TrEMBL record:
Keywords: Allosteric enzyme. It holds the Pfam family DUF3417. It comes from the Bacteria. PANTHER family: GLYCOGEN PHOSPHORYLASE. Belongs to the glycogen phosphorylase family. This is Alpha-glucan phosphorylase. It comes from Sphingomonas psychrolutea.
Length: 841
């Protein structure tokens, strides 16, 4: 009896251990546990790469058997021990900021791309969210993610016989996904209630373990809900505006409620794109309840802890809702919960508060409820400052309060096993967990031979994947039977391999490479210097133009002479993206500048030794150098001018014909293209660390999260002391601002330079509430000149009238300077919180 019991207990421990490993998405970047899943059920594993799915499928007997095998059990034990150590060990954040008053950052996003085993993403936005969550885990930054669990996710792609895209919606079985219901301490499934017009509905809650961070998901497919409501969270980016509005309510309001139910009180709330902005309202509402303050004060305090990252480069990209729709869903919320009128709420999402027809813009809401705003590349920062300029009337565009943090990718997720091995040899095992400062120098130590070997192995692996998908697609098309195999004759592991895969949105110009089909065919069909092209991408089911481009490529790919040189891979997804970005020699990207806010797929190839050929847009604008890659375009915006498209297509072909192909095939005595390999080395050394999510989340932490946590803490101190509060300051300023005006101005030339003197009438405002400055525009690429003016001692000249003086040493002519008055509060952030400004002329 005793022995049986011990054995059973051991099995149970083994079972719990393997369950724990299968539910931790660490396996999506650390491949240490792959052997276990392969051993359990290699077929399911190869088809899904989903450890939890494997565990749910495998028979008890098989599992029992393996758990009693010393080798399997030993490996399991070792991996579990490693996981436990990794979870508890202090990481970068604990070392760099040991006393930081920052215990939780809540990261809200409509999509997360973590693994193909959890398909709740569409593309780049989800990629950024997923990769940052993983990097936060590596670095020990206390982030929790909040998102939605979609019953079907984003649509899946099939290509019909005429080359047209067809949309499919297979179901995500929650049972097979690596997620678990959130349980209360009594073991009950945590369900939340949310009010929609006329009914109260259940939200189900789920958790995903992502290394040391957690992602919480919400869905409405609760059988206790009426059927029509259960579909609200079925599709990502599906349905009309009303569905989208409901999804965003669930994400923002339900998401914040979920954190509250779990007892999580984040100091910082990161809104990944405007979709999530209702979280800021709900956060303020909760503060209002907890501290018994009015909405305006609650928002003024909590917004200091909110960060908004915008990802759009054009107005059309903003989420906007009709006023009537907003009234339907938010009328009661505004009045009964926030204690404000719906018009006041609508004003938060409008450029012009008084325009009753203006739709409600989620990005505007996010700006009005955040303490810091950023774009996702340096260029996108510039573009965003123009885009949001109308919210800051009369402010110079460079002063529009939007910064940038350039995106990066989670290298351990995207590097191949081979690349991982090379980097480990040269830079050590923990290289993506520190501050990366030594990587550039270390990776330069790699030899030509090592790098070229990496490329050969990676390209070979890609070829094998492409061949097997090629066979699957031929079977789908009924061209061959299941058992036939002619794939050996297609794709050459030694040929220059070009990759192009991304959403087929028109601004990405997916057909630029196809402008001259004859020329492209010539390039691809050379027998002497063979080139192959692998394409993939989906167009939104409502995007007709994007789908037309997919049809174009698929029909072009049918040309018999291209059969072994060109393939359009169906149903672009994360797994394909992994092997494509690991195997491609050159990654092509042709967006219409400046529409690509950042772009991330090109970053994925860096650590794998691929090279970029891309339009100077998004991240490439700041990454490009002539010795590491190729740049299209002249670094200027040209709209959708067809002549420019033709010119850039020509440049694209010329790069291929005159530089890329010759350089790739220019081999030394060891058959290595040494100039090419030199580019790879520099691209790896200079770009891979810089465009990693490690660098990105460290930047968010130091430049955004820590200051936000401090700002929020400082504002909480003002509760109950209205005179220090920002809400009252805003109220006072708004009341007296119309009275503020300039009086007499004079300039006196002195030996040290001109001396300005201005009089400003402040009405009932205290002079502590404003700043008076001299401003001159930036010139020739230099920043603008802003000189603070000093208030003359001894009080006002007459009631409400103050004199300010400043001396200018810059040597710039007097005529270039203009005095201005702007609001000031020691805790408030520039024009973001109060965009008033008065110029003297
Ligand atoms: C990386 C990735 C994207 C984003 O690619 P971009 O070129 O930045 O648009 C989209 N989809 C998938 C599946 C990806 O892996």
């Amino acid at each position: 009896m005793g022995v049986v019991l011990i054995e059973r207990t051991e099995r149970l421990e083994g079972y719990l251990a393997i369950r724990e490993l299968a539910l931790d998405l660490r396996w999506s970047w650390s491949h240490a546990s792959d052997v276990l899943w392969r051993e359990l059920d290699s077929q399911t594993w190869e088809a899904t790469r989903n450890p939890w799915g494997v565990l749910r499928t495998v028979s008890y007997d098989r599992l029992d058997n393996l758990l009693s095998t010393p080798q399997f059990a030993g490996k399991l034990e070792e991996l579990l021990a490693e996981k436990r150590v990794a979870e508890l060990a202090p990481a970068w954040f604990q070392h760099a900021h040991p006393t930081a008053p920052l215990s939780t950052i809540a990261y809200f996003s409509m999509e997360f791309m973590l693994s193909e085993a959890l398909p709740i993403y569409s593309g780049g936005l989800g990629n950024v969210a997923g990769d940052q969550l993983k990097a936060a885990s590596d670095l020990g930054i206390p982030v929790v993610g909040v998102g939605l669990l979609y019953a079907q996710g984003y649509f899946r792609q099939m290509i019909g016989p005429d080359g047209n895209q067809e949309a499919l919606y297979p179901v995500n079985e929650p049972d097979q996904l690596p997620i678990q219901p959130v349980r209360t301490s009594s073991g009950e499934w945590l369900r939340l209630q949310i009010d929609l017009p006329g009914c109260t509905l259940w939200l189900r809650t789920w958790e995903v373990q992502v290394g040391r961070t957690k992602l919480y998901l919400l869905d409405m497919n609760d059988p206790a809900n009426p059927a029509i409501y259960r579909c609200i969270t079925s599709e990502l980016y599906g349905g009309g505006p009303e569905t989208r509005l409901k999804q965003e309510m669930i994400l923002g309001i339900g998401g914040w409620q979920l954190l509250r139910a779990l007892g999580i009180d984040p100091q910082v709330c990161h809104l990944n794109e405007g979709h999530a902005a209702f979280a800021a309202l709900e956060r303020a509402r909760c503060f209002q309840v907890d501290h018994n303050v009015p909405f305006a004060e609650a928002l003024a305090i909590t917004r200091a802890g909110n960060i908004f990252t915008t990802h759009t480069a054009v107005k059309a990209g903003f989420d906007r809702f009709a006023p009537d729709l907003m009234k339907k869903y938010f009328g009661a919320y505004a009045e009964n919960h926030l204690g404000i009128g719906i018009d006041e709420l609508l004003a938060l999402g409008r450029q012009d508060a008084a325009d009753a027809r203006e739709p409600f813009n989620m990005a505007y809401l996010a700006i009005r409820t955040s303490g810091a705003v950023n774009g996702v590349s340096a260029l996108h920062g510039v573009v965003s400052r123009s885009l949001f300029q109308p919210l800051f009337p009369r402010w110079p565009t460079p002063e529009v309060p939007i910064g940038h943090v350039t995106n990066g990718i989670h290298v351990p997720t995207w590097d191949s096993i081979e690349a991982d091995r090379l980097w480990t040899d040269v830079c050590g095992k923990d290289r993506w967990r520190g501050d990366l400062s030594t990587l550039e120098v270390d990776i330069r130590e790699t030899s030509d031979r090592q790098l070229w070997r990496l490329r050969r192995i990676s390209r070979q692996a890609l070829c094998e994947e492409v061949r097997s998908q090629y066979l699957r697609q031929r079977v789908e098309d009924g061209e061959i039977e299941g058992g036939e195999d002619d794939a050996d004759s297609v794709f050459d592991p030694n040929a220059l391999t070009l990759g192009f895969a991304r959403r087929f949105a028109t601004y990405k110009r997916p057909a630029l490479l196809l402008q001259d089909p004859q020329r492209l065919t010539r390039i691809l069909t050379s027998t002497e210097r063979p080139v192959q092209l692998i394409l993939a991408g989906k167009a939104h089911p409502q995007d007709q133009e994007g789908q037309e481009l997919i049809r174009l490529w698929n029909n072009f790919a049918k040309r018999p002479e291209l059969r072994s040189r060109l393939i359009f891979l169906r149903d672009y997804n994360m797994r394909q993206a992994e092997w494509l970005t690991q195997g491609a020699d050159v990654w092509i990207n042709t967006p219409r500048r400046p529409w690509e806010a950042s772009g991330t797929s090109g970053m994925k190839i860096l650590a794998n030794g691929g090279l970029n050929l891309s339009e100077l847009d998004g991240w490439w604008q700041e990454a490009y150098a002539p010795d590491i890659g190729w740049a299209l375009g002249d670094g200027k915006e040209h709209g959708d001018d067809p002549d420019i498209d033709a010119m850039e297509a020509d440049a694209l072909y010329r790069f291929l014909e005159e530089e890329i192909i010759p350089e790739f095939y220019d081999r030394d005595q060891d058959s290595i293209p040494s100039k090419w390999v030199g580019r790879i080395r520099e691209s790896m050394a200079r770009l891979a660390p810089r465009f990693s999510a490690n660098r990105t989340v460290r930047e968010y932490t130091e430049n955004f999260y820590l200051p936000a946590a401090q700002g929020y803490a400082a504002r909480i101190e003002t509760v109950g002391d209205a005179s220090r509060g920002i809400a009252r300051w805003k109220e006072q300023l708004s009341k007296f601002w119309p009275k503020v005006r300039f009086g007499a101005t004079s300039v006196e030339e002195t030996k040290e330079g001109p001396s300005f003197s201005v009089e400003v009438y402040l009405g009932g405002l205290s002079p502590d509430m404003v700043k008076v400055e001299l401003y001159a525009d930036g010139e020739a690429g230099l920043p603008s000149h802003i000189e603070a003016m000093q208030r003359q001692r001894g009080g006002p000249v007459t009631t409400g009238l103050y004199r300010y003086t400043a001396r200018i040493f810059s040597g710039r002519p007097v005529s270039e300077f203009t005095p201005r008055v702007v609001p000031y509060h020691p805790l408030a952030r520039g024009p973001l919180e109060l965009p008033n400004i008065i110029w003297q002329r």
